[in-house]
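Sample pair:
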Amino acid sequence: MWRLGFDKADLRFMLSVWRMNLADRYLGSALGGAWAILNPLLMFALFAFVFGFVFKARMPGADSTLGYAIWLICGYGPWLANAEAMTASANSIISNAGLVKNMAFKTEILPISATLLGLIPLAVSLVFLLVLQLLTGDGWGWSLLWLPLIVVIQFAFLSAIGLLLAAITTFVRDFGIVLPNLLMIVLFATPIFYSAAALPQLVAKLTAFNPIYIVSDAYRASLLRHENPDLVSIFWLGLCAWGLLVLALGLFRRVKGYLPSII
């Protein structure tokens, strides 16, 4: 891959590791890999019920609880992908200690392949949303053509963050314990359950530079509002994601020689 130092054999191995991680996660369960689909569906149902029925939340312009549920899932689905990717990549080196110690391969493949586990909840949320839009008569628009670009930019950014998290967690094990709490803070600090218009003006301006919000709003623009995402923001994030990925790979490759001795 251009400027990243991977060849076709590395990409095939990355796919194999991804499949192995997915199979290991649900090993021994009665439903097996079906949980990869059921887990996000249960989360969507829970949040839609809590915010749509218990708190009677409404997004601006929504005239029904189902409308808010669609709006919510449109932002929360990509967030589930973010959380899954960052959590899995942070623990990817430690959980694959046997591979790192006993096999000769590019160790940076592990956090990147772990990041791609986030594609599962993202795919479930997108299919679920598209079906709901057909059922409600909202339909699909040409803006769906932006989805592949948004997904690529999102996971380029997540791969860069995943490489950094994997290195940090391997050297500082306590970070893996703190990470879920940090992700929860980011979740509620980002306009996912509520509109950015509800924020104070200064905070809203700063939120416009939040990568998590940029991705979430891009999905809502293409899926929900049937319009182009904010092109300046999404292409700015794409450039930052690519640069950060190159930088993260360089940093990870400088320290990966120390990993077998500390895991």
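Residues 8-262 form one domain.
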